[in-house]
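Handout, tutorial session.
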Amino acid sequence: MRSLPNRPNSARPTVHAIDLEEVAHWNFPVCHVPLLPFQKSSTIQSLSMLLLIRRRSWWPPKRSTTAAADMVEDLDERSAEHWLARARLLLPSALAKSRSAASGGTRGFAGRWKSIASKLERIPPCLSDLSSHPFFAKNALCLEQLQSVATTLAETIELAERVSGGDPSVGKLQMQSDLDVLSGKLELNLDDCRLLIKSGVLGEVALPPSPEGTSSESNIRELLARLQIGHAEAKHRAIDGLLEVMREDEKSVVAALGRSSITALVQLLSSTSSKIREKAATVVCFLAESGNCEGLLVSEAVLPPLVRLVESGSLVGREKAVISLQRLSMSVDTARAIAGDGGIQPLIEVCQIGDSFTQLAAAGTLKNLSAVVEVRQSLADEGAIRVMINILDCGAVLGAKEYAAECLQNLSSGCNSLRKSIVSEGGIRSLLAYLDGPLPQESAVSALRNLLVSVSMDSLPSLGLLPRLVHVLKDGSLGAQQAAASAICRISGTSEMKRLIWEYGCVAFLIKLLEAKSNGAREVAAQAIATLISYGPICRDVKKDEQSVPSMVQLLDPSPANTAKKYAVSCLLSLSSSKKSKKMMISHGAIGYLKKLKELDVPGSKKLLERLEKGMLRNLFSKK
């Protein structure tokens, strides 16, 4: 191929045979060259119709060694209009050559060339859509997209020429690979053009730099668009930029997110690049923890790739994926979906081999899954019971132990077979040991309470249950104290157990619990005392306690919100044999309460009212 000599404008060139495809690679602005007087041949006439010249000189510059290389030089100096003109100039030739290769069946790749030609036919509408937008020339994304299209068209021409020339240095497998790569680039160009129009980013005119520490909406929208447009490296840079912005202004990013942006993020979780997967997982983790995008993330199928990251991702990717699943699994429907997507086993493995931080998040996720009744058997089948017990025994983080106790509480709350499995795995001893800590937790006490129905009462003293219950009643949270009182109700069916409960000093703490702010705690304390008061020494201790009768009288309140009144009546009825106790009941207003409870048919209220009224009459006559 010969090129026009690079002579000054005053010198007339000698025009040799010129390949018109050569012209397509010259970097000229749009301007037609008039026919020169000596240009008579059809070749020269065609050349004059196609030739584009530079404003500073119409002589072509030196070509790069390949068409594709020529397309990327001096990008910063070229405008969107330039790349649009270049793409429109290259398109007819690329289309013609691909059709020729398809019809000729060159080297057996007619089908691939036909597919390439079909994709090329879809490019003109995309170019029209981009160029018709009033701000297309001011948008960097548009310029980059047009440059990418022009580059792909140049590669199409170059590959078609290699095929038509029968280049023997290119093997059949290499050509097949090149055609597949080219087809993928064309498909990417078409998708990116569509997304660029659809995203609305073209409407973002370049704005002045935003103040330090803030993020302009247009910058965020462009970053979100870049997640969807271009090759992997471009998306990598976009996600880096997005992470930087989120660290400074997370709310603005969340506000700008749309379904298409979430879809792009979810797709990046399955990228072939581990770094991109890690960073996409970090963004998803940000969004999940923000509490504003859970529904959108789940609807865009974020769960399967997160589960895969937990299963086989890098340390960072796994950590971010587990944290995301923990937050998302707070929804019952999402927890059910995680189990359905095979998430149980990977989470269990993280609990076994992960570092303390990921173990904490994985245990929290399994705890959330255990709240779903239909998932509990699957958790047991996958070995969750043994793993939760191991965390109670050996976990390095208190939070992980608490999650493990909550998981066991949920697993033991309904199914008798699961309770038996927990007992057989040594769950009771592990829970009791966990309660020895300075702040015994409600979840562990509740799990123990659930398991008591599957244990022989005769074995409880040897397990050391009662000392732990006393510790909880003394130092535990209100919820833990309530659970301990409930456990006492369940084990106090025999005289022997009542004796042990009395010996360990539980009654005084139960009386104190009658004054708790929680209605549930007051109710279960009254229930426990009502169960125990038939044991003589306990009844005497209750009578001696100066706060017992006043507290129980207050629990006679007929309000529907007061669920402890029937147990209070039962306790006071047992104490009414004592004159001192009856006087205290009357002095604290028990008769007024009991009259209302009698109307409500509360068991024992009528009998207790009669006893108090008789006692009041005797006192009246004795005074006379």
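The second record follows below. Compare its token runs with those of the first.
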Amino acid sequence: MRLDVLAALGPESAETEMKRTIGAVVARASPAGGLTVEIGPADGAPLLRLGLSKAEAQRLCNTLAAIINGRDEEIMMTED
């Protein structure tokens, strides 16, 4: 798994793209009743933390299932 950040890293950086290998994805229930997904190396701090409501998590699940089942592309609108 790989994380590609496509936005510019900042004015001081000549890089416009950052690529990192993903070794672990940790999902856990959040105190607010939603879900937190942390993505990063297997032996370090997460590179990305994604917070989802229960409804968003279910829609993301359905979106990924549609792709696995043969759809070319799906768009999921978020609540915010």
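Points raised in discussion: The helical segments are 54-68.
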